[in-house]
Amino acid sequence: MELQAGLGLGEKEIVTLVGAGGKTSALICLARELVARGKRVIATTTTKMLAEQARVLAEPLCRADIAELVAGVAAELARSPLVTCGRGLGAEGKLLGVAPEAVARLAGLPADYILIEGDGAAGAFLKVPAAHEPVIPAVTTLVVTVMGLEVMGHLPAKPWVHRAELIPSLWGAEEVPRQVDVELAAHLLTHPQGGRKGVPPGARWAVLLNQAEEDSAQRAGRLLAGKLLERGAEMVVLGAVRTQAPVRQVLRSPGFPAGRVGSIILAAGESQRYGAPKQLAPWRDKTMLQHVVEVALASELGEVAVVLGHAASEIAGTLQQYPVNLVYNPAYREGMSTSLRAGLTALSPGATGALFILADQPGITPSVLRALADAYVRCGKKLVAPWYGGRRGNPVLVDSDLWEELSRLQGDQGARSLFELRPEEVGLVPVDCPGVTYDIDTPADYRRWVEGTKIEEGE
């Protein structure tokens, strides 16, 4: 998934990135994505930035005078969709930052986005800002605080933490932990004098936890994200900004108490038999996937995670208004089993069961999902599925005791494979819902569903 989609960028955004552990790489990633989508972008800094990093995008335009800078950038925008700029080049090979008032003037130019690096981190993975930083222009619409997950478990000191000597002033009277753990990282990132420092009134604030390439890093990031969301973060992105898949998860829900069932909607497929992303197939005033998401939310079982793959950035844009967590599965072409593993990394640690819902099964209802969850609690079985018309259907619910076994499945094997491997653990729930045995694979399936629904509703 693209970073611009993960952050939910709107039109004409001014984004300031602060923190450590991939801030410049994130800015470069964003700029390239936006230009590839036909947008005009200004990239700059309000402090200092290595000139060689700025040159990865474009040769910086440098002017000390604000009026001359604005005029120069305007002329460059007429020739190129991407302009990097600063007020000069320093002796250390660094691009010198522009003043906040210069950013306000640049905002009046015909650029679609302004991307700003708002502080430095000396190559560390976590940062505590000094008194003079970060420098965030008041016109900023989104502040992204970056942290590299590699800092977790290391000493809260150089080279892992920049300005580590300031940690005690933010931590308080108690002894600072001997390593960077979830509690310390969450405290530093959400402290008003830490990662949240200087966010302008009215600006959105998000946290980007970078270096989440592996499943283990994503699980660690999910633990930290829960704390961050509880403490006021609007959104946490687990990213890998130097890879082909810069966003791995987008988390908006802090989770729920232990012992609850989480829902995982599997929506990563290529829809080869359908001929287009069926997740985006229209249904009334929404898409098919939006309909399934609304069903899952209406069941009120707990958090909902949506696993994306093919056309992930486009599909993610249709889900911004829903309080769901998004998971990108970069291995989606390798089969259903990879999406099962990806979905499990996004659930809260306290979840005891996972309800796997197919994105192409629009006939399910909230009452079916609740019936499965209720039966799971009552019958004590670790595998629960609906039963209709003499057939076992979907969704299926899998107890956490079987998640490790589920994660070992390969290829296009789905959760239902466990039903054959563990028949003694199966609980079937009779339901009065034909939708549990009907999914949409082809345009003909879709037409039958639409026409059948219209008949049921008397249209």
Note down, in words, how this protein is organized.
This protein has 459 residues and is α/β, with parallel strands linked by helices. The chain has helices spanning 3-6, 23-36, 51-55, 66-79, 100-106, 167-171, 182-190, 215-230, 288-298, 312-317, 336-345, 366-379, 403-407, 417-421, 443-456; strands spanning 13-19, 41-45, 48-50, 61-62, 82-86, 88-89, 94-96, 113-117, 126-127, 142-148, 161-162, 204-210, 236-239, 247-251, 261-267, 282-283, 286-287, 304-308, 325-328, 353-358, 383-388, 391-392, 396-399, 426-430. The strands form 4 sheets. It has a 17-stranded mixed beta sheet that branches. Helix 7 (182-190) packs across helix 8 (215-230).
CA radius of gyration: 24 Å
Q: Termini distance?
A: 39 Å
Considering DSSP H and I runs of 4 or more, what fraction of the residues is helical?
A: 25-40%
Number of strands: 24
Top CATH class of the largest domain: Alpha Beta
CATH architecture assignment name of the largest domain: Alpha-Beta Complex
Poorly predicted sequence stretches spanning 5 or more consecutive residues: none
Largest sheet geometry:
17 strands, mixed
Round the mean pLDDT to the nearest integer and report it: 94
CATH superfamily assignment of the largest domain? Spore Coat Polysaccharide Biosynthesis Protein SpsA, Chain A
Q: Counting H and I runs of at least 4 residues, what is the number of helices?
A: 15
Quaternary structure of the protein: single chain
CATH topology of the largest domain: Spore Coat Polysaccharide Biosynthesis Protein SpsA, Chain A
- Structural class, please? alpha/beta
How many domains? 2
Q: What is the 3D form?
A: globular
Bin the strand percentage: 15-25%
